[in-house]
């Protein structure tokens, strides 16, 4: 099968790979580049576990062809902590018990990050809307919603 | 968190240091950083991908299997059928002497449910395995199928599973699990009212976000490391040892990290065939359910039917209860005989009833095999019982919570399956519920205790 080159930045680092044409970004990240933080829960765009951020926008990596990401800046949950210090969202997910099995967590954090990047002080309804594409089967959504609201409050206190 | 310290104050120590305090989970830092290693986060050079050819029929005889075209498909490394599996007929609970072995790893001569695994295809890529699987030709003779439990129990119904010989699990007590306590007919004769109701539930899929699967790596020392998301590591290890006729010392299972289980990952399904594939090819093997397989193939909670007949007095006492429970195992036992048995012990509920008669059947049908799920055997029973309790309270014009206080079991009461009640706290829970829900009950109920005076 013909290989195609792809080149993008992942969490600030340059990545270049030859992939089979038609490879999803999810599979390219996990199998070729070795970033397994995006998860494959359905491979059909319904569970949100594979969510990543591409050029500032929330995307489902299982429905995104890797070859369409040339030149893009991609962020995943594995790249959020800086110098060993957790991102406020990661801290909040820890503190509010917003994880149980952990499989949906990276996708949830991606969705929440895009929300807070655009809307630093979201209402509860806005948090619910932002997480509506991500399925959790363990905790229920309430601790996750609280985590995002907690992170938003922490951000605004730091900014003040 | 508020701790109620007034309950059972004389029997408990109040030196609690952990309860009521938030403590960080040890696994959360891995979850929020994406570092937690789920089984599918491991891959190995040269790893093969396994895809299953599944039955399109609910019940059929297999006349022939032709894998010749599939074998020629580019990228195919190995194709497995029933004759490749050393001990193909198994049942999970044989480890605790709950037999007979009744399920095939790969179908042999017959399929008993739509979706049953027939042929395993191992190939260089998932896509090649899928394409080759589509080229396997299986000639089926479709047989009559039965989907309804009561139909399955009728004489002349299609026989689902020859390893049982009849469409129900044969307990040592006979065609059903039985509980007999007191004289239920005398109880009904003395009752002011009798209410008989039927309750039914559908199968329920756990739908974990991570699908069932495993990754197997052959090691240099002739052992196999199996990274799996099973919820039952030792059931899986021991059953794999039986199925592959391989000493357990050759098997190294790595797991405990499960992306949602809820009972749905308790069966032994993917590991034996993946390890067999690794053994016969000498290569790592990945077998991961698609989302469709997770929803359609993995065991759901069993469908149940519960028929409850209660005799109740005007003063609120339940004097007789007769329950017939049916658990739909689907085509194979898996954990359902155990679930149905749990139901038999549970149907009196947390209530003291002097006359009880219970029959619970574990029934085989041509539906997807059911198995464990959160409180299986009792959860649907509780739904039925508590709806029944509400209906009974309305029947006699009594407050539904007060009605439960009257019947609540208390320490020392003999349960229908002849276990004395110990450590009961139902009265106290209901007292708290009364306060929390602002649903007042008469003062005499708020003064009750699970301890019986003089007991």
UniProtKB/TrEMBL annotation, chain A:
This is (2Fe-2S)-binding protein. Keywords: 2Fe-2S, Iron, Iron-sulfur, Metal-binding, Oxidoreductase. PANTHER family: OXIDOREDUCTASE WITH IRON-SULFUR SUBUNIT (PTHR44379), XANTHINE DEHYDROGENASE IRON-SULFUR-BINDING SUBUNIT XDHC-RELATED (PTHR44379:SF8). Coiled coil: none annotated. It comes from the Bacteria. GO terms for molecular function: 2 iron, 2 sulfur cluster binding; metal ion binding; oxidoreductase activity. Pfam families: Fer2, Fer2_2. InterPro entries: 2Fe-2S-bd, 2Fe-2S-bd_dom_sf, 2Fe-2S_ferredoxin-like_sf, 2Fe-2S_ferredoxin-type, 2Fe2S_fd_BS, Beta-grasp_dom_sf, Diverse_Oxidoreductases.
TrEMBL record, chain B:
Gene3D superfamilies: Aldehyde oxidase/xanthine dehydrogenase, a/b hammerhead, Aldehyde oxidase/xanthine dehydrogenase, molybdopterin binding domain. SUPFAM superfamilies: CO dehydrogenase molybdoprotein N-domain-like, Molybdenum cofactor-binding domain. It holds the Pfam family Ald_Xan_dh_C. This is Xanthine dehydrogenase family protein molybdopterin-binding subunit. Keywords: Molybdenum, Oxidoreductase. Residues 14-34 are annotated as: Disordered. Residues 14-28 have a biased composition (Basic and acidic residues). GO terms for molecular function: iron ion binding; oxidoreductase activity.
């Amino acid at each position: 099968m013909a290989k195609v080159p792809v080149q993008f930045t992942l969490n600030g680092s340059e990545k270049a790979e030859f992939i089979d044409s038609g490879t999803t970004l999810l599979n390219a990240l996990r199998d070729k580049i070795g970033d397994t933080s995006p998860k494959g829960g359905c491979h059909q765009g319904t569970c949100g576990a594979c969510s990543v951020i591409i050029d500032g926008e929330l995307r489902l990596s299982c429905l995104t062809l890797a070859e369409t990401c040339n030149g893009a800046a991609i962020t995943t949950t594995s790249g959020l902590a800086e110098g060993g210090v957790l991102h406020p969202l990661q801290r909040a997910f820890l503190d509010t018990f917003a994880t149980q099995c952990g499989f949906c967590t990276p996708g949830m954090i991606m969705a929440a990050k895009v929300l807070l990047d655009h809307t630093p002080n979201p209402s509860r309804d806005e948090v619910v809307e932002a997480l509506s594409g991500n399925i959790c089967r363990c905790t229920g959504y309430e601790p996750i919603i609280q985590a995002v609201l907690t992170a938003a409050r922490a951000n605004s206190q730091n900014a003040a | 968190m508020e701790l109620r310290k007034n309950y059972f104050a004389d029997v408990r120590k109040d030196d609690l240091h952990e309860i009521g305090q938030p403590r960080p989970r040890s696994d959360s830092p891995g979850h929020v950083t994406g570092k937690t290693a789920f089984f599918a986060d491991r891959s190995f050079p040269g790893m093969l991908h396994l895809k299953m050819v599944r039955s399109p029929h609910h019940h059929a005889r297999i006349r022939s299997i032709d894998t010749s075209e599939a074998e020629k498909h580019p990228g195919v490394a190995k194709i497995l059928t029933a004759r490749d599996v050393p001990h193909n007929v198994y049942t999970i609970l044989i480890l605790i002497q709950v037999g007979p072995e009744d399920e095939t790893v790969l179908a042999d001569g017959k399929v008993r449910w739509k979706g049953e695994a027939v042929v395993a295809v191992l190939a260089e890529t998932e896509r090649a395995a899928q394409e080759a699987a589509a080229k396997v030709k299986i000639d089926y003779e479709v047989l009559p199928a039965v989907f309804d439990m009561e139909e399955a129990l009728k004489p002349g119904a299609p026989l689902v599973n020859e390893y049982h010989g009849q469409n129900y699990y044969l307990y040592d007590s006979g065609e059903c699990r039985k509980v007999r306590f007191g004289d239920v007919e005398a109880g009904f004769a003395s009752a002011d009212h009798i209410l008989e109701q039927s309750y039914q539930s559908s199968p329920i899929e756990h739908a974990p976000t991570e699908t069932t699967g495993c990754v197997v790596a052959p090691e240099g020392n002739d052992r196999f490391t199996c990274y799996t998301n099973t919820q039952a590591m030792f059931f899986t290890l021991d059953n794999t040892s039986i199925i592959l006729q391989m000493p357990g010392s050759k098997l190294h299972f790595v797991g405990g990290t499960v992306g949602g289980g809820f009972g749905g990952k308790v069966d032994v399904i993917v590991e034996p065939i993946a390890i067999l594939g690794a053994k016969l090819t000498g290569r790592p093997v990945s077998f991961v359910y698609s989302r469709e397989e997770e929803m359609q193939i993995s065991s759901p909670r069993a469908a149940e039917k519960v028929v409850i007949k209660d005799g109740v007095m005007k003063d609120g006492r339940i004097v007789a209860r007769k329950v017939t429970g049916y658990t739909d195992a689907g085509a194979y036992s898996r954990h359902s005989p155990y679930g149905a048995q749990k139901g038999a012990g549970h149907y009196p509920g947390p209530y003291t009833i002097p006359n009880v008669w219970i029959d619970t059947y574990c029934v085989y049908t041509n539906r997807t095999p059911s198995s464990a799920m959160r409180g299986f055997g009792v959860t649907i029973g509780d739904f039925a019982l508590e709806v029944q309790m509400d209906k009974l309270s309305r029947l006699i014009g009594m407050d539904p919570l007060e009605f439960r206080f009257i019947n609540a079991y208390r320490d020392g009461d003999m349960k229908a399956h002849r276990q004395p009640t110990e450590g009961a706290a139902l009265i106290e829970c209901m007292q708290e519920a009364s306060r929390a829900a602002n649903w007042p009950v008469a003062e005499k109920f708020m003064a009750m205790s699970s301890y019986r005076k003089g007991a």
